[in-house]
Each structure stands twice: as C-alpha cells, then as structure tokens.
Write a structure and sequence with these properties.
With 198 residues, the protein is mainly β. 11% of the residues lie in helices and 47% in strands. It has a domain at 71-190: Jelly Rolls. The N and C termini lie far apart (118 Å).
C-alpha cells in the first residue's frame, strides 16, 4: 500500500479549492460600482473654421381671417362762423362699403352765455331708423368772451353703405360766430364681409 504523504494531501486541497473558486466565480454576476469616470472634459479645437450665416428674406402676408381688407378711415370738418343752436357735419358712406367707427371727438369754441348741452353722432343701418349716440362733452377753458369745449370717446358704431353719418352739437340758445370741428376715425370694409371686427 502506497503511502499518502503530507505533500500529496496538501496538493489535493489546493487543487480542489481552485476548482471550487473557479466554479463559484462562473456562477456569479459581477458588478462594478463607483467607476472612476472624469466629471469634466476639456476639448480644444484648433484651426477654427469661419462660419457664415446667410438670412434669406422671409415674406409674411398678414390677412384677416375672413380674407376681407380693412381700409383705415378718418374724417374731420372745420366749421367756422356758425350760427343758431345746432351745427353739424356729415359724411356719406361709399355705396359698396360699411363704415365701422371706433373713435369720435370734437373741439368747439362757443361765445360766453351759451353752452353745449349735447354732442351726437347719428348712424343708420339699412332698413332701420337713424340712431343718435350721445358723446360726453367737457369745457376745457374760457376767456371773457369764449368757452372752449372738447370731447373724445372710443366707440364701436356702424353705418351701412350709402347712408349718411351726422355729427352735431346742440347749444342752449342761438349763438353767432362759433367754431365746431368734429372728427371720426375707424375703418371701411366691404359690405359683404361677414366679420365686423378689425
């Protein structure tokens, strides 16, 4: 019977342990935690090329949602040497347009002893009666012989094609040689336009 030496036993345990460790390692997942990755990277570019940016003109057309053009409008009249208790100016709307009035204003110089008690703008829609709209008037200053009045009001008024818009001041009594200068502004639109907004 052969002798089993201490060296043989020692060698057997070492080989068995290596096989066991290798088998265990092959069965396990390997995870790497906290890898040492640089947090800042510096990039140097040499020989930077020239960059030319060319802007091509862009044409933008702005149109109303309904496709109908709005034509800016303003009207004024300077009435001097007026007499009586009413003075007026008028504007006739074109036969193919509707007038939308957005601002009404006026200035007047009236002899002392008389006052403006109303400033009106008269408009009409087709097949309807005329309507008078009253605009607030304020006295701004006066001298020994004249009182100065003014008015300005944002509105939304309509006048149909072919109708006449009247701007009137009404005095408390008959006066002579007074001045009245009314103004209106807004826009004209084709009569068939379904949308009255700007």
């Amino acid at each position: 019977m052969k002798k089993i030496t201490f060296f043989t036993i020692f060698l057997f345990y070492i080989v068995s342990g290596v096989i066991t460790i290798r088998a265990y390692a092959e069965e396990q997942d390997i995870f790497i935690t906290n890898p040492k990755v640089p947090t800042q990277v510096t990039v140097t570019i040499k020989g930077t090329p020239n960059v030319n940016v060319v802007n091509t003109p862009l044409q933008v057309e702005v149109a109303n949602g309904d496709g109908f053009e709005r034509e800016p409008f303003q009207f004024t009249s300077n009435l001097t040497n007026q007499s009586g208790n009413i003075s007026y100016a008028s504007y006739r709307v074109p036969s193919d347009k509707r007038l939308v009035i957005e601002t009404v204003s006026m200035t007047a110089a009236i002899p002392i002893g008389h006052e403006i008690w109303a400033y009106t703008i008269e408009t009409r829609l087709t097949h309807e009666l005329e309507v008078n709209h009253y605009i607030p008037v304020f006295r701004q200053a006066k001298t020994t012989s004249i009182s100065y009045y003014s008015a300005c009001q944002d509105v939304r008024l309509y006048a149909d094609p072919g109708t006449t818009v009247f701007l009137r001041i009404h005095l408390t009594g008959s006066a002579y040689s007074f001045l009245f200068a009314p103004t209106i502004s807004g826009y004209l639109i084709p009569y068939e336009c379904p949308n009255l907004a700007p």
